[in-house]
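Running log. JK asked me to keep both predictions on one page so they can be read side by side. First protein, sequence followed by its tokens:
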Amino acid sequence: MNFLKKIFSRNSRSAKNCGNFNYKQILGFTPRNAEYYEAAFTHKSLGRKDKFGNKVNYERLEYLGDAVLGAVIAAYLYRHAPLGNEGYLTQMRSKIVSRAQLNFIGKSLHLEDGIKCAFPKKQMPDAVFGDTIEAMIGAIYLDRGYTMCQKFVHDKIIMPYVDIETLEHKVTSYKGLMIEWAQKTKKTLRFELCDSRESDLGQQFGIKLLIDGECVSKGRGTSKKKAEEQACRRAYYHLRRRIDKRSSGKK
């Protein structure tokens, strides 16, 4: 762990230098090294670098936090879902740490108040909220260790937002659901790129979802994958009754 700390920070700074944003209010404790948390709330759009020329943003901490969060949630499910097999536990973990779920939690915590970026806060992509949650967990791991990460995840994510029974029925991939439905009903499902344009937030893709050659919905996102998911979500709610009947085995 000392090796990781050296990678992420050259010099320790006290919690008094956190700036105007109140990290303690969100974390539930006083940070020992503010640099980790400042990096966790810094978007790459600022182009910040330290005195050694290394990039300073949340991406590396996000990578670390993603791994720690997955481990904490896996342990929680192992204890609280004793009858679940490996496939069930994996599926439930994916639902808890899904991008949509983490984005929602990040918004609920009003993380935008502390996120530093080069674009207007009102234009902040939803993904930044989930990324920052994971980066925070990475910062906590480096600053206070795994046990404090467990407490943070339990208090801020599991207790307020995780209900296993509810999550069992939650859809995490509308694209997967639509593909499964199309296969069962022997329908042809196809995606088409309808436009691609640059915006202040980067490239935006427009995708059409066609079923048996007919366009049933459109989606837009910062990647083709995200645009396809949005198109499938819209198609699902448009065709919901038929899809739900087929999924439940009803005719």
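And the second, directly underneath as requested:
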Amino acid sequence: MIQSIQRAVQIMDFMKEPDKSYSIKDISVATALSSSTVHRILATLVDCGYVMHDEVTHNYKLGYALISLGMAAIHNTKLQELAKPLLKELSNLTQEDAFLMIKSGNNGIAIQKEQGPNNLKVVENFGYEISLHWGAIRKVLLAFQSAEFISEYMRTNFKPTPTRLVLNQEKFVKELEEIRQNKIAISTGDYIPNGVGIGAPIFDHDDRIVASIGIIGTSTRINKNNIDDMAKIVFEIGKRLSRMMGYTREY
């Protein structure tokens, strides 16, 4: 492994928190690299456009050149290509915004979205990482992780959300068990008041969960009158995309 590249990746990975800039000292402390090493690597990254330097504050943040790399990675994968028409179908059938999400560490991130026709929406930022226990589509990703991962996650990351200030760990573990059994998750107001989410897992040919798919809307549109029908639609779309990814077991 080339050490300089590894260090550059380490620095950029540390800097990925949205709307934040960093001093050389911040980066040096976080990465355990010397200030001179950090400065040298940052200078190269700035020249390449992967990092931006503020001439006033002398702080650094990730640059726009990374966007094209990220979008290229997204567009060049089989999953996104297969999911695109199904997301559109899901949005058309439910009349809600449809999302494809993947796991990123202890977070879930929306990598693809199909807009529904309604003007009143639950805002879900594309590409923004949010904890795995926030919302149905992310809970699905957590539910199908290993027992060891879930145990460690519950110990270190199971923290209150903006709308759930008190959490019941035992109740949540049972919820994850139900998600694994039914292959569907439903949440109401997990982190946005009146927000309702429905999510289903996407498996590949190795029986691994590779993503989740689902919808997010408001409780005025997704409620006791139609939520079961909505869940069936999400379930079937998840099943079809899993089959397209090579999953052959019973869904």
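Observation for JK regarding the second prediction: The two ends are 40 Å apart (CA to CA).
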